[in-house]
Each structure stands twice: as structure tokens, then as C-alpha cells.
Design goal:
Elements: H1 7-41
């Protein structure tokens, strides 16, 4: 299947997955930061 894939489609797939991972990480870190900030305030 690897040889039949078009390079453009392959790069789209990689970029899409990369963006998904980055967004997920930002969401998780954002939630952790909010928790930490609220703990620091009180």
C-alpha cells in the first residue's frame, strides 16, 4: 500500500495527524494549566 500512495496524500495524512496531536496536547496542557492556576489563587 505504501508504494501506491500518492506523496501529496501521504503528506496530507501526516500533517493532519500532526495537527491533531498538537491540538490535543494544547487542550490537555490548557486544562492542566487552568487547574494549576485555580489552585494557586485559592
Amino acid at each position: 500500500p505504501f508504494s501506491t500512495m500518492k506523496p501529496s496524500r501521504y503528506y496530507e495524512f501526516i500533517t493532519f495527524n500532526f495537527l491533531n496531536i498538537v491540538i490535543l496536547r494544547i487542550e490537555v496542557h490548557g486544562k492542566l494549566f487552568v487547574k494549576w492556576a485555580s489552585c494557586e489563587e485559592s
